[in-house]
Design brief:
The structure is a homodimer. Helices cover about 30% and strands about 20% of the residues of chain A. By secondary structure, chain A is an alpha/beta fold. The first copy, chain A, starts with a strand and ends in an 11-residue tail after the last helix. Chains A and B meet through helix 1, strand 5 and helix 9 of A and helix 1, strand 5 and helix 9 of B. The complex binds uridine-5'-diphosphate (UDP) (2 copies) and manganese (II) ion (2 copies).
Chain lengths: ~260, ~260
């Protein structure tokens, strides 16, 4: 099983993002989607979308504390986004892992965990690459970090350094979309989590550095030469006319879910 | 068959966009994807993506003449985008339609044409709604025109006006994503095309006004009360670090397709 953990938050494009993401995942065999809402309660929008998705899923939620949340106008790099939600997904996996200890040995042995943001683009091949992860597998990510792509650099089958536009000496200069970890490693390292207070660019490192070394990384995607995931971002839709019409009482029907 | 005509052009996010779009379409039975590149030749990127998509498809191309193309820095509303490409798709359909006259009567009778931009988000339900179009079917579009949604307004099963934030008296104030047309109507109206010189917001009208009236529109999506398509737009990725590294000869390998 591939457990895909996706943080998500309410905004105009949320349903559209989750919709196309669910269509991608629906092509992937043995995928379990763990959707973690940045909200103090589960929402009906996400509940209904998941129920109609045809996927195997779990709906979780945890609100990012206000002081850790990016405020309107803050530059996007100021605080990491989705950290608490990914940790909530890890907590659920560990709870499930200990509940089923012994019983589902094989299922746990072969399971993999991937952190998939709701706005990225994923090739179906990516999931076949990560499916056989022993510890932590890695691959390039397109359109991230101000670069055409960032990537581990492989020599003799091992990762020897990282191609990145910024601070290559970070412990793991890898985007969230660029690695998967075996469930086994998640369960045997119960304290490995994302540090929501990590400096910009160090969130992935905060999780990975306790569980793996660079030498142990498993390069995938033809020795990290193929781009199978893209760090796309979706524009925030302008609501200029909507706002104007709403002032006249002529706005779009608020009962219609967008 | 649903013939989906998609204009597309080379840019950093092109492969990502076409990738997730192809994953959506792969869930839809009896869909034929007509991809029309804004290019003077077919590209290898699009050819390979289509070949690996698992879809039934046709790859076409036509370059937008320079004087009709939006230039860097032009406001996005200045010139319609994708008009020549959609017309090339129509030309191909008509050519195919006359080549198969008589032989594939039923196939043509039940076929539908939809214009799907490469950056929008489509629910799978949308295709089941449009599949039974007699003339022109219509439905709401989310996140378009500065509004939460734009939509035909239906009364007694007929479209009586349009909910839009701008010039509701245009002949058809409907986004490209908001209608489908029967192939029959396309073939029996050989001169109906998109006018690449149409004023802003009048491109859809330029095609529709010759073939249908408002009264004849077929409202879908529960009488135009459900949003099944979203006019999402993808951010242009920043290449700041890439540009800096390239100047030092350390840029991302140009042989890696992104
Ligand atoms: O306040 C927020 C902002 C973002 N996210 C989620 O965290 C992930 C990363 O956020 P985003 O895609 O905005 O980050 P970026 O594209 O800047 O890396 C996405 O799945 C978002 O839905 C969240 O849960 N709460
Ligand atoms: O020079 C261009 C610009 C756009 N398009 C295509 O035309 C459609 C509409 O363009 P876009 O999505 O940029 O328009 P908007 O989102 O502003 O409506 C999309 O399928 C694009 O790929 C094109 O073929 N050539
Ligand atoms: Mn993102
Ligand atoms: Mn668009």
């Amino acid at each position: 099983t591939i457990y895909v953990i996706t943080p998500t938050y309410a905004r105009l494009v949320q349903k559209a993002e989750l919709m196309r993401l669910s269509q991608t995942f629906l092509h992937v065999p043995q995928l379990h989607w763990v959707v973690v809402e940045d909200a103090d309660q589960p929402t009906a929008l996400v509940r209904n979308l998941l129920a109609e998705s045809g996927l195997t899923y779990t709906q979780l939620h945890i609100l990012t504390p206000k002081d850790r949340k990016l405020q309107e106008g803050d530059p996007s790099w100021l605080k990491p986004r989705g950290a608490e939600q990914r940790n909530e997904g890890l907590r659920w996996l560990r709870e499930m892992g200990s509940a089923s200890r012994g019983q589902h040995g094989a299922a746990v042995e072969n399971a993999v965990v991937y952190f998939a943001d709701d706005d990225n683009t994923y090739s179906l091949k990516l999931f076949e690459e990560m499916r056989y992860t022993q510890g932590v597998s890695v691959w390039p990510v397109g359109l991230v970090g101000g670069m055409r792509f960032e990537s581990p650099v492989v020599d003799g089958g091992k990762v020897i350094r990282f191609h990145t536009g910024w601070r290559p000496n970070r412990p793991f200069p890898i985007d969230m979309a660029g690695f998967a970890v075996s469930l086994h490693l998640v369960l045997t390292n119960p304290d490995a989590v994302f540090d929501g207070d990590a400096q910009m660019g160090f969130l992935e490192s905060s999780f990975l550095q306790g569980i793996i070394t660079m030498e142990e990384l498993e390069p995938k995607a033809d020795m990290c030469t193929k781009i199978l995931v893209w760090h796309t971002r979706t524009e925030k839709p302008k609501m200029k006319r909507e706002d104007a019409l709403q002032k006249q009482g002529l706005g779009s029907d608020p009962n219609v879910e967008v």
